[in-house]
Amino acid sequence: MPTAFITGITGQDGRHLAEFLHGKGYKVYGMMKGQHNPRAEMIREEFPFIEIVPGDLTDLSSLVAALEQTQPDEVYNLGAISFVAMSFNQAELTANVTGLGVLRMLEAVRMVGGATNNPIRFYQASSSEMFGKVREVPQTEMTPFHPRSPYGVAKVFGHHLTVNYRESYGLFACSGILFNHEGPRRGLEFVTRKITNTAARIKLGIEKELVLGNIDAKRDWGFAGDYVKAMWLMLQQREPDDYVIATGETHSVEEFLTLTFDKVGLGDWRAHVRQDPKFFRPAEVDLLIGDPSKAKNQLGWVPEVSFEQLVGMMVEHDLRYESDRLKR
Ligand code: F7E
């Protein structure tokens, strides 16, 4: 039975990936930090097949112990402080977890190594935030980086280090440069889920308005369920490499709003939305659009869920989720 070890198991991608790998017959270990992590119960209930292993990206010895104990074939490093807005206020923590955390994982993989004929394969969750103030449109694996947040800077560090460990020590280490990917499991702090969830709450009379920041920003939004498949495909190749994972389409936050309010049946979003400077960022990433040609040609990966289907799926989920909560 192949074995996978996932950091960031409680996040959107960790949960999608665990489900995907379990379906492929993997034994799945999920790393969780803290003495009494409040999310452990949720994971145990939702995914009883996941074996939870203690460990923390800020503690190298815990990572070595976790890999020694689990002896994985594949390691997926999805753990991070992943909320860009928060990274401006907690820059040092972001650098430690999102940046240095990658160094510690790579060191742990190098130390534990795996069998000589079956070395551990490592996946690093790189991000389109590394492109930041974009140098070319669309962005490819060759586009230079210009991060615009402490989060983006930490991800650039992790990305370069993954390439460096591959080149220096021959690790089977891949970076997936994933553009924004969403879905019903997205945290409520991210703009897509904030919009679909608040629109559902307004529709049900629980909330009065939706307060946002910059709605002109454009993102290449895909479905998280499609993107975890790309992570796995990268680790099944003969040679490790880096890939852009994106849809190749871009939409503004305003377009996301229009479609959501339309699908919820609330009409013009302008009647329900207010902007507040507190949700604007000190430096913004205005436009992201990825070119996934390499992933398509080399991995045979293509996104399956369209922008409109994605919004529809999130709206449908949040209407159901919020009305179920009302009944309880
Ligand atoms: O913001 C604007 C905001 O927080 C998207 C993470 O998964 O994807 C994500 O990073 C845009 C930005 O995601 C609000 O200013 C307006 O332009 O949903 P977001 P993100 O920053 O693009 C990348 C690929 C990652 O790697 C990250 O980990 O929406 N925006 N008003 C707002 N954003 C939020 N969160 N809340 C607002 O009220």
Give a verbal description of the structure:
This protein is 44% helix and 17% strand. The radius of gyration is 20 Å and the shape is globular. With 328 residues, the chain is α/β, with parallel strands linked by helices. Helix 3 packs across helix 5, helix 7 packs across helix 11 (307-327) and helix 9 crosses helix 11. The mean pLDDT is 98. A 7-stranded parallel β-sheet has the order 3-2-1-4-7-8-13, sandwiched between helices. Strands 5-6 form a two-stranded antiparallel sheet. A two-stranded parallel ribbon has the order 9-12. The chain is built from 11 helices and 15 strands. The protein has 2 domains: 3-182 and 222-245, NAD(P)-binding Rossmann-like Domain (Rossmann fold); 191-219 and 250-288 and 305-327, UDP-galactose 4-epimerase, domain 1 (Alpha-Beta Complex). Strand 1 (3-7), helix 1 (12-23) and strand 2 (27-32) form a beta-alpha-beta unit.
Can you describe this structure in just a few lines?
With 328 residues, the protein is an alpha/beta fold.
Task: For this entry, give a set of tags.
328 residues; alpha/beta; Rossmann fold; UDP-galactose 4-epimerase, domain 1; 2 domains; seven-stranded parallel sheet; 44% helix; globular; binds ligand F7E
